[in-house]
Amino acid sequence: MPGVGWASLHNQPQCPDGAPPGGQRPARPCLPGHRRHQKDRGRPSPSAPTPGAPRTADLPSPPSDLLLPPRPPAMWPERLAAWSWSLDGLRDGIGSGIQSVRDCDAAALGTVACLLLLFLWYCYHVGREQPRPHPPGMGIGLGIGLGAEAGGLQNGFAYCQSAECVRCGPQDGLNQKLYRGLQEYAKRYSWSGMGRIHKAIREQGRYLAGRASIQKPEVFFLPDLPTAPYFPRDAQKHDVEVLERNFQAILGEFESLYKAFSNCSLPQGWRMNSTASGEWVTFYLVNQGVCVPRNCRRCPRTYRVLGSLRTCIGNNVFGNACLSVLSPGTVVAEHYGPTNIRLRCHLGLKTPSGCELVVGGEPQCWAEGRCLLFDDSFLHTAFHEGSAEEGPRVIFMVDLWHPNVAAAERQALDFIFAPGR
């Protein structure tokens, strides 16, 4: 309506906001759609104006800053209701648990408490107990005590007496070092699956002193492993098949190396071993867990074959891989290997007649292109009684894990018996 100013709105119907008539502040007009417009408190509805009053449509539009945005729907009541429901569920769960404990027999609760205390005591005992000392002269840790045998001879076998040798190194305090190695491994990883290794380290003196003469590992004995002088090919089927498939490649690299023997007595890379008679030489690719880079470069295909084996011991001092050559007339004196956690695999490369391996009193003959698995912790010997015209006996030797040593135990043994520890 022309000529109607903002001040004239004092005479217009007001929203029912409780303002007293003739208040001190101008009341906002009742706009359609306002939330207060929807409430009925017994006053005349703005949609039905009083007679003689101007229509809302004729009024000027109020300033835009007086138009209030709609308020968001209230969320707190719903959140409070959900929280109350969660608290009710928690209270019901706690009450059910308390009631279950009350209903349980006191003897059963006592039994559970005793078992829990026993478990905690066992964990503390395992973590703190120290291994039992070995009898004097008994090989412990990574070394083997030579005792009173003159010249380092045991069972007629001459040891090298090297400080780095797994058998011949110094023995003072090495058993405690093994136990500390196990504790360090368990702290870094887990005690899970370490029961048999812990038992072995703790009882090495009794195991090594009380073993029957047919099997007596000189460094480390792991209890509860199946024992037999020879093992079937299926014990490590994959690795046996890999070695036999690569028989020709390994033989070819050996023949290239062996040509050097015509120029000198002991070519570079070869090692002479002590024997009762004859000559026994070896060419190591891996010696007591340490790769020999120069030799591996001279036998690249054989080295690649080693890398494809699944159970080859290559990370601890009990792992070896080498070409082994016995000249005619050689006899290797009876001796024991250092441990029962491995199987020694011989792949026959050249096997003249008159060659034989005896393990635990059982003789076996090598065959070219075939693998022979045996436990060298049994008393064993080898000899070549063939003629000089037949040439040397040659095998490729590699140490594989015993099939009954679990994966967790292998990892722990690699850590404890790591080269240089």
TrEMBL record:
Q: Does the keyword Oxidoreductase apply?
A: yes
Q: Which InterPro entries match?
A: Asp/Arg/Pro-Hydrxlase (IPR007803), Asp/Asn_beta-hydroxylase (IPR051821), IPNS-like_sf (IPR027443)
Top-rank lineage group of the source organism:
Eukaryota
Q: Per its UniProt record, what Pfam families does this chain match?
A: Asp_Arg_Hydrox (PF05118)
Segments for region (Disordered): 1-72
- Does the UniProt entry include the keyword Oxidoreductase? yes
Q: Where is the signal peptide?
A: none
What keywords appear on the UniProt entry?
A: Dioxygenase, Oxidoreductase
Query: This chain belongs to which protein, by name?
Result: Aspartate beta-hydroxylase domain-containing protein 2 isoform X1
